[in-house]
């Protein structure tokens, strides 16, 4: 979706959206110089609204929260890759790996 539809869905002004993009809280795709947002961006924007609205988090706090969210997302991806790699191993190797994990 483009800027206007995105802002309409969130009931925000374009200046607010520009601020969020400038702070890299949202990183839209670009097609021919036009920003394109997806459902994941909408969910992320709703989180930002909750943080700055009812929760009263300041700009620095939102920066931290969004960075942590990105790190968690990255870790989930790496964990999925690791699990796929473990699944490609023979059963004995899988059991040894899982036994080591269970010790933690």
TrEMBL record:
Domain HTH merR-type, residue spans: 1-69
A Pfam cross-reference name: MerR_2
InterPro entries: DNA-bd_dom_put_sf, MerR-type_HTH_dom
Protein name: Chaperone modulator CbpM
Organism expressing this protein natively: Mycoplana ramosa (Mycoplana bullata)
């Amino acid at each position: 979706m483009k800027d206007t539809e995105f802002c309409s869905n969130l009931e925000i002004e374009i200046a607010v959206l520009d601020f969020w993009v400038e702070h890299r809280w949202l990183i839209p795709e670009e097609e021919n110089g036009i920003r394109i947002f997806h459902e994941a961006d909408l969910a992320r924007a709703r989180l930002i609204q909750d943080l700055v609205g009812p929760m009263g988090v300041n700009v620095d706090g939102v920066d931290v929260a969004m960075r942590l969210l990105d790190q968690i997302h990255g870790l989930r991806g790496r964990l999925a890759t690791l699990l796929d790699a473990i699944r490609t191993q023979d059963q004995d190797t899988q059991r040894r790996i899982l036994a080591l994990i269970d010790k933690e």
